[in-house]
Amino acid sequence: MRYDPKTQRLETDAGELIKEISCPLSKKWDQLMPWADDWAQSIGQNPSGLELGGEWYSWAQLEERGLQPPEPVPARKKYCGSCQKCVIDVNSYTEAQIQAVCEVDEQACIHLRLNHPELTVVNVGTEEDGRACGYEGVSRQGLPIVQTARTLAALEDGVRRGCRPLFVSTEPQGKVKSKLSIICSTEQKYVQSYTDFRLSTGIAGSESDESVEITIWHDRDRDPSPLAAYLIPPTLSIGARVYIADVIEEIVARTWNQGDSYRLTESEATWEGDGFAIDPPRVSSIVG
Q1: Which DSSP string corresponds to 208-220?
Q2: What is d(CA 247, CA 134) in angstroms, rounded to the nearest whole number?
Q3: What is the rounded distance in angstroms from the CA atom of residue 130 to the CA atom of residue 168?
């Protein structure tokens, strides 16, 4: 493989495009939160400390004694709070495997070190974007980014970095909802679903056709994990303006006159010492 930072093209040795890396932020792997498919999965070690010589030491105590805490099990995927996407570590993959990942999902984000044994870097002198999208990242408006932990692994990693978790309830409040209407025709052996009442059913059964209809209301954008916490940096002062890339609270940002409402996913906010005052969104309305 070869990668040109100037053109941002990752290619095979034959010149075939594998992926064009066009992320507006410079990803720093060690600053991203570890991601686990199971929200209750740990990062692979006891997050509170370590037993040495029959005595228990917290991570802070280990650092005070000049001892290096053990490294957690390397994460195969991490979470970028700015893009709200997972980044896949492909450094143990072959060129063919990396190419397969990018073919299956053209929007996949990958982490590839420049010292990958099958990678040749050209135009090495190209300047890189110095912005980061992890714990020390800033938004395009220059505001510090507050990360949201949605998994136990991310929570453990954030606490280890010195962040204080601010837990927020994820219990549904009924403010945000989307519909899914379903019609089943037993005579025509046909099932149709739609999200817009204006759409025709497309089913024209006889009078004897016993069709079954139902409309289900649900929060389609709600994160399935019951765990959610903002990771508060130790240097954050009261009154500081921040950018929250993953809003936990159920706040309506958009409505539809058919009854649907959609949640606020990102926002600027002000830190008040015990919580965030999230900027009220300008709620937009869809009519139709």
Answers
A1: T--EEEEEEEE-T
A2: 16
A3: 32
